[in-house]
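> @MW can you paste both from yesterday?
MW: sure, first one:
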Amino acid sequence: MGKEQRDAAPDPRGILNATLIAADGSPTNFTSWKMTGNAGGNHLVEPVRGTYNEGGLHAEHLGWHLPGFGDNDWESGAPTDGFAGADARFYRTVVQLNMPQDYDANLAFQLSTEKKAKLRAQLYVNGYQFAKTLPYISNETTFPVFPGILDYNGNNTIGLSVWAMDEAGGRVDVAWKVMGVHRSAFDPSSI
C-alpha cells in the first residue's frame, strides 16, 4: 500500500539478486535462472485480479487458486492432516454460504499452526490471495475477508498453499471466525 505514491523513482519489484549455496557451504555449479512468469503470460488467465495477485508458486502458474479450476482428479486431503518433509502442497475446497437477508456478518479466516513451524501458508479466497502467514516470523493468525470477496449466498472457492521449509513438514488448521453479526439493510449481493 502506497509503494508507488511518491515523486522519487519507484522501487523495482521481483528478484534482484540471489545466491545458491550447497548445504555443506561449498560452491554450486548453478549458472542461470528460468523464470516462468504468471499464469497465461501476457494474456492473463484472470485479468480482474491482475499480476500482483500471484507469486511464483506452481499452483498459481496453473490457476489452481481460481474458481472453476477442475480438481476432480486430485487426491483428497486436508491441511489439518499435515505432511512430512520439506515439500509444498496445495489444498482447495468449495464452501457454500447461505447468509440470511438483513444480516451483515464480518467473517475472517483463522490459520493456526505450531508457533515455530518453518512453513509459509497462503490463503486464497475466490481466487484472491488474501492471507499469508509465516509462523516462525510473525504471530498473525486472523485474516478478515471483506464483503465483495466472499459470496454470502453462493459458492466460495478456498485455496491454501502450504510450503514446509524443513523436514518437520507442515500442518495448518483453517477455521472460520465470525468477527461480528449485525442486523442491517446491507445487501452483500449488491457489491
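MW: second:
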Amino acid sequence: RRRQRGERRNAPRLLDLDLLLYGRCRLSQSRLIVPHPRMHERAFVLRPLLDIAPAATIPGRGAARRWLRSVRGQRIDRTRTAFWR
C-alpha cells in the first residue's frame, strides 16, 4: 500500500501475503495452512503457477496440471503491462 499523506517515510505498514505453496511443506496452524487448502480450485493460482513451474506438485493433491480441467470455466484476465518493472 502506498504511504498516506502525513505518514513517516519507511514507517511500518501492513502486508497481506498469501503463502500458497512452499516446496513439499505441509503445515496446518490456526492462522496458516500450507499448501493453501483451495489453491487447486482456483485458475488464477494454477495457471500462473504452471507457467513458471510446469511440473509443480501440490502436496496432498498431486500434480497441479491435473486440476486445470476443473477450473476451465474460471476467467482470468492477463495484464500486458509489467507493473513491477
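> thanks! The radius of gyration is 17 Å.
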